[in-house]
Amino acid sequence: MLCALGFCAGCASPGTPQPPSLNLPRPVNDLSAVRKGDRVMLTWTPPTSTTDKGPIRHNVVTRVCETINRFPMATCEQVIKELHASDLPSVAPEAKNPKVSVEGALRRELLNASSEATLAIEVLNDRGRSAGLSNQVVVSLAPALPVPTNVTGSVGPQGVTISFIGADANLLSQRPGVSYAYELWRKPAGTGEYVEVESVPPSGAEQHILDPSFEWEQTYDYKVMGITTVTIPGKLPIEVPGDDSQVVRVFVHDVFPPHAPTGVQAVFSSVGQRPFVDLSWDPNMEPDLAGYDVYRKPKDEPEQKLNKELLKAPSFRDENVEPGHTYIYSVDAVDLRGNRSSRSAESTENIPK
What we know:
The structure is a single chain. It contains no helices and 22 strands. Strands 10, 11, 13, 14 and 15 form a 5-stranded antiparallel sheet that branches. The chain starts with 31 loop residues before the first strand and ends with a strand. By secondary structure, it is mostly beta strands. The radius of gyration is 37 Å and the shape is elongated. The protein has 3 domains: 32-140, Immunoglobulin-like; 149-252, Sandwich (Immunoglobulin-like), CATH 2.60.40; 265-350, Immunoglobulin-like (Sandwich).
């Protein structure tokens, strides 16, 4: 009777049977690789759910897979690293989907300018099964330039010169399509990001790179980095950065005076008016020039400066001259920080009676 009233257990219609979950972690889809020197930094977001959209309930194992000169991999051809949860330090633990980064050294026997490594991530469940490889990344295996040594900095009137010893060009691979350079990088001391200043090819002997784009009275941090560039027809050039040199801090203090003015000429004139002497000279070309001072020395008398303010133009008129006197003129230049040049050659003019 109870069954007839609908209280009979098991009389409901059964639903469609669901297959059991395989608990396969979702494949990684944001793997990236950055090479620096003979190391590669891999970064990715570890999966938090399975292919069935359920949570991952058991510890997983992450494998780093590699193959040489083949893209893409069909399966994990060679496991070069196996990682457990405790081996995956987060680089953004506060993020909703924190990324992890793992660094590994390239095997030196594989380094070759014509070779490439294909890398992928495979995440296995507790039964050693996966849903497949991650997206795959390709890394050049071209040898990186060795770290520059003996890095020093000096300041001159034209700028900051960074000196170092790099690789001997005769020992580098001369394979077509491969080129090398050492790059100079600079940033304000203690702040900001490095920017590239200049580059030079390696020579093996002591090398020098000039930084002319500085600002006086500033402190900068400099470093030198080697770059190997591989050019393959039909592809964009691949740059392999070497390890950074030690950082050199330089205070760019200006103690360098301008060049002494040249071409000073003194010319007397008095046609129809009080006598005067016109002075002219070649302009100084320093970009930080502030101006000029003009000096006059009557014969057998003390010298005096004629102008009160620095002269911006390379000329001056001396209207305080007396007939029958001889005057000796000279000029010096001053920069924006008060550095004063040596005196120009003298120019003498006689004022007729």
